[in-house]
Amino acid sequence: MNPLQMIEIFENTFRTQIDPFVDATGIFGFDNVKFDDYLIEKHGDYMDGKTSMKSFILRQYGDAGVVVIEALIGAGGKELFAALQSVQFNRSK
Question: How many C-beta atoms surround the C-beta of residue 91 within 10 A?
Fold first, then answer.
């Protein structure tokens, strides 16, 4: 899955733009901590000592959610940032 596909799948699955969760410097890539904070804000605190973020995403968003988050975490920061810039440019048209 290339970075543009990751962005499209993320935004379709989670119904939010990926922008706040991508490091603006292009060094670090996907910010899993910010995304976790977003999930807690949106759905309430799901951390009951038994439920992992992965389990929660699987239950709420299905396999596509888990696959895209794992891909984003493993993606290179520069490639993801470049893809995001392309998406943002297309949104502004």
Answer: 9
